[in-house]
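Shape matters. As here.
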Amino acid sequence: RTIGDRIGEAKASGNLGNTLKILGQFEEAVVCCQRHLDISQEQGDKVGEARALYNIGNVYHAKGKHLSWSMAQDPGYLPQEVQETLQKASEYYERNLSLVKELGDRAAQGRAYGNLGNTQYLLGNFSEAIAFHKERLAIAKEFGDKAAERRAYSNLGNAHIFLGRFDISAEYYKKTLQLSRQLKDQAVEAQACYSLGNTYTLLQDYERAIEYHLKHLVIAQELGDR
């Protein structure tokens, strides 16, 4: 501010906002991220503007998740405050998405789609969540980003469960499992086995359910995860 470096001030405000978000100080975080947004718009800095929109979305997303966890709610059955917070997150992600499309930034589009999928899932809009996660999946494949691809499969599996399409969920969880093994991520592999166990229970294929729950158990024991 002293040297009149507006872009520098904007970036510093954004960093403060992100740090306050991690500290759970959501209201202050929004103020700082909004400052980042205002200065970026004033300076005609589209990249900064896109980043600020994404960061504000993240603050509302984190706040919404924090509120829904503290109330232990299922997706779609949310108190008014949580719904409004997640709705705001979604709106900022949408604004971010249209701007990064304009900028032709595919990687940023991928991140926006993933987060839109997650907010819609929490809001109980499972079909919308699926559409967004499919977009996320396509971009992850485009970039050869195996970790993002794995997350997309997992999220697609979760959303299909709530639509009662257990067989489709199982296919997505199997892809999650495959990729977690490729990535040598045992904790995620265990989680995929757990999800498959539950899905096969819902499909009333109990032999398979037991098989996957045993795999989950073995990895949990290996990792010493009580």
Q: What stands out?
A: The CA atoms of residues 130 and 156 lie 6 Å apart. The mean pLDDT is 96. The radius of gyration is 20 Å. The chain is about 80% helix and 0% strand.
